[in-house]
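Note to self: keep these together.
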Amino acid sequence: MNTSKNYDQAACDLIVAQSPVDFAKAQILAKQLDKNVRSIISKCRSLDVPYISKPSPAKKKAAPTKADLVSAIALALDAESLDGLEKATGQSLNNLLMAIR
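Structure:
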């Protein structure tokens, strides 16, 4: 078993016993072993204990920016400048654009 000066055999055995380890288990092990979570995750990898990483957050939909909405409103109204309008909420700008069209 791959032990080090930071992890004794009992700590390594405890990590292996929790296999597979996810982030929640890593947090619990970190508290039990008085280590930080990153250290536990690294030790899992060095011990070849499967680690299930947290799923990445869902990506936002590509929405038009406020500047794009203001430009579209200016184009629809045939206005030269609508400076300051971009400070309105995105929903308000979208509603205004839909009302114009």
